[in-house]
Amino acid sequence: MAALPRPRKRRPERRARPDPRARPVGNARAVTGEAAPVAVIGAGFSGTLVALQLARHLPPHRPILLCERSGAFGPGLAYTSGHPDHLLNVRAANMSPFPEAPSHFQDWLDRQPAGEAGQRHLAAPGSFASRALYGRYLGELLEAEVAACPGRLQRIHAQVTCLRPAEGGFALDFADGSTRFATACVLAIGNLPAAGTCTPLVRYDPWATTTTTGLRPDIPVLIIGTGLTMIDLAVEIFARGVPGPVVALSRHGLLPHAHAPAPACPPIAFSDTERRSALALLTRLRAEVAAQDGNWRGVVDAIRPMTQTLWQDMPLPERTRFLRHLRTFWDIHRHRMAPSVAAMVESMRQSGFLQVLRGRVLDIAEDGELAEVSWQPRRAATSRSLIVQRVIVATGVEKAVRTSDRLLRGLLDLGVARLDVLGMGLDVTAELRLLNARGRPVDGLWALGPIVRGVFWECTAVPDIRAQAVQVARAVAETLE
Ligand SMILES: Cc1cc2nc3c(=O)[nH]c(=O)nc-3n(C[C@H](O)[C@H](O)[C@H](O)COP(=O)(O)OP(=O)(O)OC[C@H]3O[C@@H](n4cnc5c(N)ncnc54)[C@H](O)[C@@H]3O)c2cc1C
After folding, report:
1. Which residue, of 314, 334, 354, is where some domain finishes?
2. Where do the record's region annotations for Disordered lie (predicted)?
């Protein structure tokens, strides 16, 4: 997330204190004689998928604890939105959570009764379902697994505040003061909440239900960021009947492209020189697009299977360069909008409801019910100011290095985990085992999903996470054999 000037009147953030309940816990297997459980922390897409895969890969007597602080098991941050126009940005046919059953989600969709919320986007095969439907689908998968073997997969509605090594496994401390033991643990804590402290006028929580409520009809709203989250917000504000305008501001003022049919391109064989330089990679990609008559969608899709290795082959300074200069361009080509959403965006822009600016925010001064935002247009010498009723920060998920997340900070403080070299998330091995402060793999501890994106870069979308979930479940099963 790009650094932003702090709004004035910000309250000081509290520092996480060492957990006073931290105490050794005995091995539950020794105490009860039953198999000790495997714990999964977080029940968004990643945690849900790991739990389902663990249920397949572990012997039936091994309990699985799925811990989720929100109480919603399955949807996580991405698939909680109930708005019917918040659509998946991947075709339904590519959204199966199971690598070996590619049409699983599409088949489920086809069985849903006509007229369901979100169904209006399902006119043709290969179209884009609503994220709410996908969240419901994940919840149902989990429900079915729980019912199939009562007591084995346990959903625990609680926040894990501390995870610490204990004899034969880990102790999990919960926010309600209780502690459970697990013989192995998977961290699926996902997209970290923004570190900024919300005020009534400046919101760092773009996905919270109250972020777009209570808006006045006569004053603009500013959204910082012009990616898919901004588009969600603009669509939502428009649907609330707020006349706008919604002003979206980012460094380049670039919006995601739309999905469109594109012929598949052959895989690209990059040279060693290209693999070691962000600029050389870009030059090669441009040449490929030219050779494919401008079919950039085909080229971007062709390198999807190798983006993780391309990322890992790049030396650290090149990865940093990519993040600073090329990331925006990659994101708008790679994470594309559903065509019907793109049509909505176009119409909102044409009507003047959505206005896009290029530049950066210099200062936000809150004054009663309004905020004065001073901003610098790109390549302009002088700054300008905007009076808005709300500022919504939608610049992407938080970097782990900035987070105040209690569990994560505790893991780092205990030396059980360390950050990846870019500070984006947690450091793991290629097998997704957590690396401790000394760079050694921690026995019995894995992580997957967006929290390991610094190591793999492309590991936040369903096709990536579903593969990681199988990988982790197999590794846990092998370890416990
Ligand atoms: C808005 C949005 C839309 C997306 N749309 C698509 C799409 O269309 N297609 C696609 O392929 N990908 C999409 N993605 C990307 C991807 O699918 C998600 O990032 C993915 O769902 C990540 O899931 P997750 O479980 O790792 O993280 P999250 O969804 O963030 O879930 C993590 C969960 O862990 C819980 N948690 C965290 N800490 C604790 C704790 N200490 N104790 C207990 N619980 C805890 C949280 O409450 C949360 O529910 C989207 C992402 C976002 C943000």
Report:
1. 334
2. 1-30
